[in-house]
Amino acid sequence: MQSEKGFSLVEMMITLAISAIIIGAAFGSYTIISRNFEWQKDMKYISQSARNVIEMIQKDIRNAGFRFEANASIADPVKIYDAGDCCDRIEIIYDETINKRVKIEYKLQQYSSDNTRFRLYKKKTNLSNNNTVEFDTPIADYIEALKFTGSRGNCTDGDVKKGCGIEQLVTPSSARYVTLHGRNNNTCSDDILKIFDGDPTTFWSCTRDSGEYDTNNTNYLLLTFPVEFRPTKVITNGSLSGVNGGSFDLTQGENFARGVCAYNSCFTNTTHPWGTSYPTNLNTSFAFIRAGTSPSAVSDQIHTEGGWRCIANPVIENFFSSSWHPPGVRNCGDNNYYYGNLNYNQNISSGPSIRINPVTSQTIKFTGDGSAGHSLDLSYSKYLTIRIDSEGDRCAYSSADEAWESRYHREGVCNITWQNDYIAMSDMAIYGEVFTGTISPQEVKVELLQRSPREHGNTDRNFSTTIGNFSINVNDKFLRDNYLTSATMRNVYYQSP
Amino acid sequence: MNKQAGVSLIEAMVAAVVVGIGFVAIYGITTSSTRVLLNSIDREKGNMIANMIMEDIVIDVENITQYHNINFSSSPLSQTNSVEKKHEKWKSAADKMFDQVQSGSTECSGGNPKEWKNCHYRKVEVVETSSGSKVYTISVHLSNREGRAVNTFKRTINAE
Prior knowledge:
By secondary structure, chain A is mainly β. Chain A contains 2 helices and 26 strands.
């Protein structure tokens, strides 16, 4: 007979109690760990989603305004639409390839009927192919606010400061020719605007032969632009337009040589008859100015249409920044009265004028030193004057050519002859900083409020914050987090228009 | 006759304690993973702010030395120039993304940074790597949770 002793009731009770404690602890731990896992999962979701979205938008903002040199400039690389609610929209334009300009758009859209759930959509439009939409797809969910704020350094809307406008090509809408500081209204029938038509084969000229060129006075071209601008640079397009026959050997350079010819300066890199018939770019020189040469006589002011203002630059902050001045009264950047031209000198130390190359283009930046007479780049206006300092010259190769002087000239080369009988200008493009009142952003701040897909915990939690100009205050069980950064539109910041 | 002894109360208690230690360990791991997650989120956010700060400095190299030692846990005294405006922008961004620095909080310093608490450290340092080189190292220190999480982000730029 076997003796089998079972558990006593007390033992059973104790065992059950301990088991219950262990199972309870296990269950409790499981619940805690499980909740914590879900919480972590959603926190990570928020963080990853926000990071991905922000990085994607940042990348596009950094690309904004990028264009291949051959393509047209992009007027508004970034446009921000703010309806005053949670959900801004941004449009970003850049060249993806040389043949493809794209517009990227980010916007929040309510998901289905749930008015607390928004999805972020990214839309890509090919602007080079009839605005074909390549995709318009959700890239993130549960984003409750997305705000963009554009800024440009220290600029605010309405600022007229260096760096606060948009540098762009400015083309005059009208132009006229005067001499003797505007006192003589001579006529030159050729269209001055041909200088700015972008076509290097067209040019403006005024010749003695036509009876229009006033050889005895300083000649001015008065340009009127549709917008006010601060001059930043000019690109002169060296051109052989107007030159009949012959050739120009560019490999030997474009500066006329002194000392190699018998007496006068000459070009040794041309062949007859290059330059014998009013060439456009042979030694013509000019300067950009704002005013006449004397402030005392109103009649001496060239641009009677209007004057110019100094821009509010750090150097001359609040210095004549708010009132118009008659031309020639004062110089931007100079606290002392300065009566004279506000002009730009190509080489401040050695010469006042810009000389056009016969063939190649040259870019001249208006970076004056702010001292008297050299601060054109610190002023802005709708009017700009070209003072022609040196008429065009011509070539004489032999006694068969006009103005040949055997004593001074060397046979077979282009001897420069100063006949003072014409002025001519081929193509040039003027660039300036245009102030539109509303600043064009250079940096964009991106703010985003991301919430968790699921609710967490048993009690509501209060969340209040301000994202851009949108405030949110909620009491619920969702998790939320703010993300914020800014990106520089590098292609706009460093671009050369 | 088989004599089969049961589990004694002591044995059962010991077993329960062992299992309990296991649970505590698991709970500890959970807490630790939460801390790691929060640190990782702090780092991620800090990276965004640091990128913003560095980009702001890179486009203003003319004033680069003025950014040295900017403490953006508090606002600048005025906002009249671009450096001060950026200072305020960084302060506001850090306050939004992280805890706001409590008034009276001191700047974290000395000792083991891992033991910092009840302090703040939000600072930009711009140091020229060698005199005249125009190569600068920008360091951004960002504290959160009252100094318990401090991250430093560094980048070297050529300001030539």
